[in-house]
Amino acid sequence: MSSHRLIRRSFVSALFASLLLSFLTGCSSRTAAPEPRYAPAGDLLDIVKDFQRLAKEDTYRFAIPKDVTGVNIMKATLVRLDDYERKNPGQYGDIVQFNKALALERLREYDQAAALYRKVADIGGRLGGEAAKNAEIVDNFLRIFDRTIASDDPFKYIAGLDDKVAAWNGLIKKHQGMHYEFLARIEEERIDRAKVAFVEANRARLKEGNQLVIVGYSQLVTKHQPSKNIQRYLLDFGDFYLLLAKDYASQYDPEGLAFDFKAFEQFIKSALKLYSEVAQVDGVVEKIEAQAKIEATRGYLEKMTRLNR
To answer: Is residue 127 within 8 Å of 98, Cβ to Cβ?
Structure first.
């Protein structure tokens, strides 16, 4: 074989090896590990670091934060800590249980949170003292949360709700500046909303029931203006005014002489005003719902207007 052929064959072999190496390198880059922030959290420090950063949010004013996958950070953290415990039994038990308790109390699972705090307090260590304090606070939450209210009389029931509101308000003042302040605000808000719902459901049994509902909604949206739920309350308030308009149209025939169009129209205008307030707020999920309610209410008003002519 000539030296020319040997050189040519060596060159081809070298070129083939180079191409093969390039192909394998390309495959390796395409099958590389995913970006770290999308990989499952396996290290306890990573789990706790991300959770602690997002868990400080005021969940009275803002929705519970989501992780990078779009999942509720409290629920995601509980799953990740459970997974860590299975893979690393007996390691850093106090840290795992303490952070589980933090997530549970923010999910309003106060009984489970208190039990975990007590476990950490029994273990002792650096987190023991703080866990004992948190367990005592959460126990106070449970005493109010589990308090029974007489339901045989509507006025006694409302009085019981008022007592709970006062108790939650006491905890708000006591824990001002701590995350327990906004947890207590959430509980107070839920009772305030329950009061309005109860009066609305029983308005026919109460003297001036409709007016009491209007007063209740007015107080709710004023008191809880900073709440993440304020747009929902405004929509519900508007729905009640629309209900009053429909009740009026059912009671008085729109085609008859007894129908007072101005009284009917006032209910509609009140509903539209509340819907419009929500429809003007950008970045809230209720905006689309408010816009749809405005169109539907205007259509209903047009129908009643034609019938009343």
So the answer is: yes
DSSP 33: P
Indicate if the pLDDT at residue 297 is higher than 60: yes
Sign of CA dihedral 143, 145, 146, 147: positive
CA distance to 7, 10, 11, 237, per residue, from 2 (Å): 9, 13, 15, 97
What are the pLDDT digits (tens) for 64-105? 998 888 899 999 999 999 999 999 998 999 999 999 999 999
Cα dihedral across residues 197, 200, 206, 211: positive or negative = positive
**Cα atoms in the Cβ-side hemisphere of radius 13 Å centred on 302:** 6
Q: Give the length of the chain.
A: 309
Picking from 250, 242, 236, the residue whose alpha carbon sits closest to that of residue 199 is: 236
Q: Tell me how far the alpha carbon of residue 284 is from its chain's centroid.
A: 13
Question: Which residues are CB-neighbours of 267 under 8 A, at least 6 positions away?
Answer: 241, 242, 244, 245, 248
CA dist., res. 135 & res. 113, Å (int): 8
Question: 19 or 191: which carries more pLDDT confidence?
Answer: 191
Which amino acid belongs to residue 112?
Answer: Q
